[in-house]
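Section 3.1: Structural characterization of target chains.
Under the original work plan, the team committed to producing a structural model for every single-chain target entering the pipeline before any wet-lab resources were allocated. The record below documents one such target. The sequence was received from the expression subgroup and is listed exactly as submitted; it comprises 387 residues.
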Amino acid sequence: MTVGRTPAITMRQWYFEEAHGHYDIDLGDSYVGGSRLSDHTMPADCLLDYGNGRGTTPLRSVVARLYGRDPSHIGITHGGQEALYLLYRTLFSAGDHAVVFTPGWEQAEPVLSRAGCRVDAVGVTPDGRPDVAAALRRIGPRTRAVVVNSPCNPTGRQITAAGLRDLAEALRPHGGHLLLDEEYVADLGADSLVGAYEHAISVSSVSKVYGAPGLRVGWMCGPPGVVDAAMQYKHFTTVTNSVLLERLAAGMLERSEDHVRRYRQLIAEGLRTLEPWVDRHRGTLRMWQPEGTPYAWLHTPGLPDSLEFCRDVLHRQGVLLMPAEVFGAEHGIRLTFARDPDVLAEGLRRIETVLAGRPTAAGPATPTAAEGGAGTQRAGSNDDGTA
């Protein structure tokens, strides 16, 4: 994986423009699908007023219970994306500094750069984890936050406990924050990293684990003062969420154990299918073992161009994949395997058809630092897309 590049194509361009309407098998979206409105009880008595800018009390209370926190630590947002945006706008001022990891979700770099902040993007280690050593060299007195996505989208790998501790120790002297994008943490009470540092803030939603991105309900969990400031800023973005969608989200979260169980079951079943399939193509594909994510990162040393390969799979076979290029990287594919077994098997069969007809490129037999190692850049103002 080569990282630290300006995306050749953005997520928005790939997903909403080029791929839209061209696939019937989705191995690209990173959430566990299947949730339909008919699966939920419509709250017919719901008063369609403005609700509450911080989120309705029932929803904030159930999110707080997931973390084992008081509701004063919780703010409800229009998806996890808005939570991150509100935090960027409230924590940072012109001239401040942030550290982000790449490849990853592209929102931080353009938003903060356009606000006059300096952003350093550092890469991952050869095993796909955030390169904490590289990040530590960039943290200084103006570093307002280090943005950590763990498990990472798209690598599927987690930051180590030692790495998290080192980041906290570097940030603590000047009150810098750890901004934790935890969309793929299934059990927030047991596995969220927000308790590891007093200035940590967790962001998540019902989009990924619960498979309901269409509800656009997310949240932040952190120090009450930070949450208060972000929720005040929300008055100038979406004001409040839909009270109807918040009611539906609260109902899902009340049944969190069922959703988490299904999420983990689909991951386990999907891996049992994916691993031998990747092994059959070991000369062309290599996989970083995913750590609790519904997707895996596949290195493509045997393919000359991962974007063109994903285009072939999309337009010839009707299967959606996510090429490395949408994450500012090269020579890789994010493939979501937490799917109905028949759908996954058919999708892999179609991909195999394209693989069989592709010329191969010479590539190293094992991951190298150039593929998985640290890449560093001064972030530019890339055109960002969506999750």
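The chain is about 35% helix and 15% strand.
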